[in-house]
Every structure is written in C-alpha cells, then in structure tokens.
Amino acid sequence: MAELISTKLNPESHLLLDQPLLRLPVELSRKNFKLTAVHVEHDKKHLLGALKATANDSFSGQKDPSETLGSLDNMINRMKNLKRKMEGFHEEEKTTHRQTRQRLEHLHNLYQIPSLADVKYDEWSRIRLNRLIADYLLRNGYSESARALAKEKGIEDLVDLDVFVQCHRVEESLRRGSMHECLAWCSEHRELTRKTSNTLEFELRLQQFIELRRKGHLMEAQQHARKFISSNVEHKNPEVQRAAGLLANSPETRVEPYRTMYSKSRWDFLANLFLKTHHELFSLPTRPLLHFALSAGLSALKTPSCHSKYASSSSNASSTTTTVCPICSTELNELARNLRHVQHNKSSVEHDPIVLPNGRVYGRDRLLEMSAKFGLEEGRVKDPTTSEVFDISQVRKVFIS
Hints:
- The protein has helices spanning 2-7, 11-15, 19-60, 65-111, 119-139, 143-153, 161-175, 180-188, 190-193, 200-214, 218-229, 237-246, 258-262, 265-281, 289-301, 330-333, 364-373, and strands at residues 353-355, 361-363, 380-382, 389-391, 396-397.
- It has 401 residues and is mainly α.
- It is elongated.
C-alpha cells in the first residue's frame, strides 16, 4: 500500500511547470483577433468614406464616369489587399489551433497515466525534457539547434519556435545598434501594449534622439523631440527634462546622467527591456523553464549534509565514505550549493538510531558492525564520515516523535 501511495501520479503538480504551454497560444490568438479587428475597422472606415464621396460626386455630376470607375477600382484593390491580410491571419489562427490541440492532447495524456512507475510516464517525461531543452536553446539564440531537436523528436507543435526566433532577431538587432526591427514590432503590437505601463517605444524614440544628437544633427533632434518625446511630458517628465539637457551636453561630456545616456551600454538596456516587454506581453516566464525544473529537482534531493565539510562527496577530499547521492556528486554539488533543501514529511531511519557526541545519527547495530571492521576494540565506535572515535558510553539512544 505504501508503495502505491508513493508512486501515485499527481498531474496537477506537474502542470505547474507547463502553464506557458497553453498560455502562449491563447495570447497569440488574442493578438491575432485584435490585429484583425484593427485592420477591418481601419479599412471599413476608409472604404465607407470613399464610397460615400464617390456616390455623391457621381449623383451631382462633379466627376465623369471614368473617374468614378477609377475610384471604384481603388476601393476594390483595397478590399483585395484586406482579403489577403485576412487570409494570412486565418492561416496563423489555424496554426495556433493546431498547436493548442496538440498541447491539450499532450497534457491530457498525463491524466491517463496512473503511476510514476508506468512506462508511459517515462515516455511523457522524455517529451517534456525535450521541450525544456528546446526552450532553453531558443532563449539562448540557438534557433537552428532547437528547430532540429524539435523536428527529430516530433514536437514542433509543442515548442514556440517562431515566437522565439522573432524575439531573438529583434533582440540581436538592438544589441547591434539598430532600432528598425524593434520599432516595427512596437508598431505591430501597439494595440496590445497600449493599456500596459510599457516604456519600450518611448525609450526607443529617446535613443533615436540621442543618436541624432551624437551625430550633431541638432535641428533634426529638436524636431524629433517635439514629435515623439515632448508628448510624454505628463508621464515621463524627468526623462523628458534629461533629454532636453542633452542638447547642451556633447557626447564627450563627463557629466551624469548625460554620460550614461550617451553610453553604448544603453543598447543592452534596450535589448533587455524588449525581452521583458515581449515576455510579459505573451505571458512567458523570464527564465528558461529548464532552470525551474532543475531548481525544483535539486532542492527535492538536497539534504543539510550535502554541503557539510564532512559530506560524502567525490568532490570532498576529507570524505572517508562514498555515496550515491546525486547532489554530492562532482557535477551537481556546486550547482546546488545556493539552493534551499526541502523539508520532507516522511523519512527513513534505522530501527535502532543512536546519536554520537558530534551530533551524527546512525543505526546502533550497523555502527558496531562497521567499528569492528575498522579493528576497534570492544566498547569503542568510529564515525564512518568524520573518522572520530568515541567510547560507547558517550552514545545516546534517539527516540523519534
């Protein structure tokens, strides 16, 4: 019975790590719907106005038939362009629905697995591990490796390839000192970010102003400031005032904050701000999911003794014993050093526990047996971890409550 309880699968706890798997398709569908509505409303307004003006001019005789036909042709071409855009949005929506269906099926399979010992759980876990690795590769710019892994494992619909590829392309362009792609991204997603406290577009316009001032184009810089920066004075008054101060400070200035504003490090700031804005917009975690999984796994396995100076570790020269604890291994010991260890509700102890004067607890029979193997005289015991020797009279029995 105890074995069945310990191996019973709890799907809800697994899904805590997989929330972004369903959140992103929902956010993409929402984005697609809003952009579709914006294009339809914009073209509808233009076409109704043009149609009304053309009809009035035709009835009043102000235009000859050829001009009226030309206006109608322009409206037809505009509607055809709108149709092409709608077809593109429709294909994106179909892709999102297909991915959502695959992801729901993947998560539903978890509820069909009764036990952690089931071979189907190993298969499901292997798929999730491949997803986490692909997510890590995408976030670190290894897009082709992630694409190859997803294709080889057949998990393309479970990995957000296109989203992260576009994100990485914009990020890299900012780090190279180019704002065109990021400004285009802001323009495309303006309707989605309008209600949030997003400062990305303002910072990009400020950077354009800085670059104009750096090149000595004072007139263009002032015109740019009037168009894009001064309109934010109500919400960004300190930043607007600092921008105005740039006009009186050359790029060689040592005065702060203008020296920092001219610094090339602002490009890294803009890249990081874009990543933050992008992930918030699509409800993506800021860290790779692999980090969360590793942290949880290492913490679950870690015990207070794993980083003790007497810990039995292959990386600990003072250790006198060996261990199969993964946290005490050379590969994971340092990685888990700053993580907390979990409090276990259940533990396994010897049936006859005793405590040595140094505070370490062992089973009495096993300790006496090991001490005899070490060649100690009767009535003496040796701590197998620290190699300290004690008299049996110093040992105290432990009672577990």
